[in-house]
Amino acid sequence: MTHRQAVATMLLVTLLWSIAGVVTRHLESAQTFEVTFWRSAVTALVLGGWMIARQGWRGLLGAIRAGGRTLWLSALCWSVMFTSFMVALTLTTVANVLITMSLAPLFTALIARVTLGHRLPLRTWLAIAVAGGGIAWMYGSQVGAGTGRDLIGTLVALSVPVAGATMWTLLQHNARQHPETRSDMTPAVLLGALVSTAVTLPLSLPFAASAHDIGLLGMLGVVQLAVPCLLAVAAGRVLKAPEASLLGLLEILFGVVLTWLGTSESPTVEVVGGGSLVLLALAGNEAWALWSGSTRAGASAVTSMKVS
């Protein structure tokens, strides 16, 4: 995959990720946990079939055994992300959920700072401060208005970036402790979907979803989750981390716009204003990191040319 193809792939990935909000707003009768169950079940079925076709039962079981504790902890994080995301969408607005999830890069930086001792550059501290102001603006009005359902939905959504940040920190810690081990962490996504399915099954009974709802949620399991996850892994092998993070922010813009166009749900002034601050902070942080990396690479190339 060329760099241009990787960028185009990530644009497609973010567009596919962003359809969850507008699709869930067209469900007829599926309840909170049932929404998660059907999507996770179909995702597990598709990913499991793809992995078995790719490497066979023995290969898949071998990859799970080789992953050890880190793979299972990663799977637990994936299950939290799969479950909390869909539950949050049933409790609060799409814009609230997506903007709250966008804090993942900053949570990752903070957790890595505390657990791994990573030093944070000034740009990241500035981004954290600006994003914090945006979040306070967004949700301060909800506290004053007493919209308890929105606050609960926001807290549920907050577990998604926390789980994601924990997962990436675990993987980085494992790579640091065992640099010789090249375990495949892809099965963690499958295990996460299976755990999410198992946990939400008893909470979904008795089923209330119509055939229409199951069709939409099954489509999300394939088109919105399984396929883009595989595409993102492929694009991630080519793109730099800041590039991927910056492109990933488009999911928020796509999701809010699609929901606004496809439903009667529209973001409030506070969500637009506070969310803009969050996006500005995140985009500025990642763009600065990308520019700094390009500048250093250019300087190294010039130095190399002079020496030669």
From TrEMBL:
Superkingdom of the organism of origin: Bacteria
SUPFAM superfamilies: Multidrug resistance efflux transporter EmrE
Transmembrane residue ranges: 37-57, 69-91, 97-115, 122-139, 151-171, 187-208, 214-234, 246-263, 269-291
GO terms for cellular component: membrane
Key words of the record: Membrane, Transmembrane, Transmembrane helix
Domain EamA residues, every copy: 7-139
InterPro entries: EamA_dom, EmrE-like
Name of this chain's protein: EamA-like transporter family protein
Organism: Sphaerotilus hippei
Upper classification of the organism: Bacteria, Pseudomonadati, Pseudomonadota, Betaproteobacteria, Burkholderiales
